[in-house]
Amino acid sequence: LLPSGRTSYRHLYEYEYEIKELARRYPTLARPFILPRQSVEGRDIHGIEIAVDARHIHDGKPVFLNMGVHHAREWPSGEHAMEWAYELLTGYGKDARITSLVRATRNVVIPVVNPDGFTISREAPAKGDFSVFDYEMKRKNCQAADSPPDMRVGVCADNPAGRLRGVDLNRNYPGFWGGPGASANWRSDTFRGSAPGSEPEVRAVREFISQRQVTTLITNHTYSNLILRPPGVYDARPPLDEPTYAALGQRMADHNGYTSEPSWKLYDTTGSTEDWSFWNTGGFGFTFEIGPSSFHPPFETGVVAEYAGLPPAAGAGKGGNRAAYLEMLQATADP
Ligand code: 0X9
Ligand code: ZN
């Protein structure tokens, strides 16, 4: 069903192992890499790049970046990104459309942008009470510097502030940072951090986008079956090319059955990923909110199978995020 054949949520070590294994299986088509900055706790942030000659990174082709797990508890977001890597690698040379699109582009997948938070959420003992010690519901990264000294004691996985320690990586980008829809309080789940771009995980992504020719990106989250585009706040000027942006969002929504809309319609946010990337690089970026009703429902409920357009996907029978991502790749190849 899924390109990888997986039947359970990956752990961080499985993402890392599978990236290495794919690179071994597809030595010309795939290049594993580590972003030049580590997470707060010193973990590597892994990615895989897919192109006809994966190692020749400066061949002038546009880069489509597909990311997951800015938010720790949003496990399906990493799964969909990782399945996309399998899709391209297993489809190249077999599927005519994938082959021609891969020839025209470079594809980068960073399935877990927040490896510290993800590890805590994924490995947490089940509690399920949504208290601050319910680490499975952790959202932010592991930054401790902003909390008061008595709250800094203990490791990120077990400390007096529980899962509230950390910065919301989707409020820390330097795009409208300081505005509404983000908190200045370190305990908040939408804490923006001490300064725009203060977090190493955000710096890692920003530096990658700025140093490479990333023209399009999708940052995956869960949940609500939405395709979101800038602006994140109502009173920000809509992009000059809003009609083009909106049309691309709608073409993707036709595949996965989601609702495509400007992100402020959900609620105000500042410091989000694609607000920064659009206003700073001009590249088209979208947030996908995968799944109908929870951050990481049991795998068996099919929220990862929705990748392939299978029920209970909003657009079941259409094409799922597989088809939506291909639409984005088409736009990358042929802007
Ligand atoms: O609040 C968020 O960061 C996203 N929702 S989530 O439940 N995954 O946390 C929505 C962000 C929407 N705003 C922008 N993308 N600008
Ligand atoms: Zn999220």
Automatic annotation (TrEMBL):
The active site is at residue 289. It comes from the Bacteria. Residues 8-320 form the Peptidase M14 domain. Signal peptide: none annotated. Belongs to the peptidase M14 family. This is Carboxypeptidase T. The chain holds residues 215 to 549 of 800 of the full protein.
